[in-house]
Amino acid sequence: MNSFAVRARIATLACALLAIPKLGAAVDPPAGPIPFRNAVDLALQHSGVMGIAAINQWRARKAYEELRANYIPQLTIGSGLGYSYGFPLTLEGSAPSVANFNSLQSFYNPSLRQFMKAAKIDWHAASLDIQDKRDAVILDTALTYAQLAQLTGKITALSEAQTAAEKAQFVSEQRLQEGVDSKLEVTKSQLITARIRLRIAEAQDQSDVLREHLSKLLGLPADQIAVQPDSMPQMPLISQDDDLPARAVGSSLAVKLAEQKVAAAQARANGEHKAAVMPTIDLASQYAYLAKFNNYDLYYKNYTANNFSGGLNLRVPIFNSVQKAKAQEADADALIAKKQADLTKNQVGENTLKLQRSLRQLSAARDVAKLEWEVSQGDLEGVKGRVQTGSANTRDEQNAELDTHDKHAAYLDAEFELSRAELQLLRLTGELENWAIPPP
């Protein structure tokens, strides 16, 4: 192997290894909240999933080069030293020789060309897999970032609700001591406070898990993770009249990967069929230096120490039931790949339509939650006015404030569920990366 080939191989390995994130690499902690675009960039740089996909692409390329190398002469140099008594017999099929040189390369092989075609398709399909993994990382980052932002606002709203509930509970306890309220009213106030504490604990636990997950995605310490909600791009307007299922099937990386698998499986099946019926021709040559101590001069009339032969090695298949069965097996694999591609298309189309139609319900639920929040704010203002006139008490005001904060938290939940469906739909239609990383 010459020095250029060595340098080329080292460069290829280096490129593949650079795609793998460095474990334990030091990353400077952010000075403040991480903007969404920076979070996506960090996740793509740090992603181990994309590193594995890059290595798989490199491996698929080497598999193609392995098959292509059959058309390049394969050279071997060796020796078959051995002692001969009587007629010089062969050693494992080769005549005993002081030194020998062999070369072999494929010259005409239709089945090998089909196998090369399949390997090349697999190599190109690996690039689609990298893009698919890239979209998966972007989606994971976007969903985690958006939910963490939603939970941050929700915890704030629930904390304010807890303050209002504790005030209402205190008022109920005071009214119990004054003989105005019953013990049941105090218990109801305590129940409301306990429920809010439970919801805060659930939201806080979920937030901690999401922050830890985002830290793993970005390669940053969890205690340094803080989101900036207003840095997320606005969601594009998605119409119910658009034929999104057809667009998704046409742009889906999953569908393209399935189609590439069909093409590769069909090429392999063609290769197996050609191996059963088509002739193959190899170019071969051999040189051997033979010694007299192997008795060649005694048993061969025209002995010479230097011997060379070269030419074509023609093989014509006549009957090979094993290869025929193997070809039929490859046909079955190609048929399975075709059926799987059809299933993938149907699944992508159905999932896209389901998400597209769910947007109407989720959008309506978000609007209802927002209106309920606005109504509760109006009710709170009305209660405050009645408190000033004496027609309502402090506990009524605290309960109204509690309801406002509770409705605010419900609105944040509904907003995130709508955003989740929109992000998943963007990925299915192939528009996620343009949304997350707008082109200049």
Written account of the structure:
The chain is α+β, with helices and mostly antiparallel strands. The chain has 2 domains: 27-71 and 109-278 and 317-434, Outer membrane efflux proteins (OEP) (Up-down Bundle); 73-108 and 279-316, no CATH class. The protein contains 11 helices and 4 strands. The chain has a 4-stranded antiparallel sheet with strand order 1-2-3-4, with no helix packed on it. It is elongated. The relative contact order is 0.13.
Could you describe the largest sheet, including whether it forms a barrel? Answer: 4 strands, antiparallel
Q: Which quaternary structure do these chains form?
A: single chain
Annotation field: number of helices? 11
Using the alpha-carbon principal axes, give the shape: elongated
| Strand line-up in the sheet with most strands | 1-2-3-4
pLDDT < 50 stretches = 1-27
Q: So, CATH architecture of the largest domain?
A: Up-down Bundle
Helix content: 55-70%
- What is the SS-derived class? alpha+beta
Strand content: 5-15%
The CATH class of the largest domain, by name, is Mainly Alpha
Number of beta-strand segments: 4
Count up the domains.
2
Give the CATH topology of the largest domain: Outer membrane efflux proteins (OEP)
Order of helices and strands: HHHEEHHHHEHEHHH
Q: In angstroms, what is the radius of gyration?
A: 36 Å
CATH H-tier superfamily of the largest domain: Outer membrane efflux proteins (OEP)
| Average predicted confidence as pLDDT | 86
Distance between the termini: 45 Å
